[in-house]
Every structure is written in C-alpha cells, then in structure tokens.
Specification:
Layout: H1 4-22, H2 26-44, H3 49-64, H4 68-85
Helix pairs in contact: 1-2, 2-3, 3-4
C-alpha cells in the first residue's frame, strides 16, 4: 500500500525546507525537517526510504547547526536503511 497523500505532503515539506534554506531561515527549516521525519516514520515506518531521506535532511541541519552527535546518529540510521534497500 502506497500512501500518495503522505508522499505529496513530504514533497511539499521538502520544497518548503529548500526555500527556507535558500532564504537563510535555518531555524524554521529545522522545524519542518523534524516534522518531515515524524511524518515519514508514522506513514512509512522505520525501514522505508522516505524515512531515510527525511533523516538525512534532518541530520544535515543538525550538522550545520553544530549538533554533531545527533547528526551522526541520524546519518548512521539513514545509512543502514540505504544499505538494506540498495
């Protein structure tokens, strides 16, 4: 079962995140990244590629904001998903 509404919502969130990053509004984009992770986990589960993509984006935000420990944890989680799926 593919939840197209959730995929559309994630795509919309990612576009908003990109716009906010381009505008230098990193705090707002971080919050949307967290929302995207929650949505992807709820709708697709912890082993889905959509969840990995959302985690990767959040980890990037965490890294650029200096939260290296959290970033590393999330990069590791998405790496495991990518390795399993690909």
């Amino acid at each position: 079962f593919v939840n197209f509404d959730a995929e559309d919502e994630l795509q919309s969130l990612n576009k908003q995140i990109e716009s906010l990053i381009d505008a230098g509004k990193y705090d707002q984009s971080m919050e949307l990244s967290k929302k995207a992770v929650s949505l992807a986990l709820k709708e697709f589960g912890p082993n889905h590629i959509q969840y990995a993509k959302a985690l990767n984006n959040l980890a990037w935000h965490q890294q650029t904001s200096g939260d290296y420990h959290a970033a590393r944890e999330n990069f590791e989680k998405c790496k495991k998903i990518y390795e399993t799926k690909y």
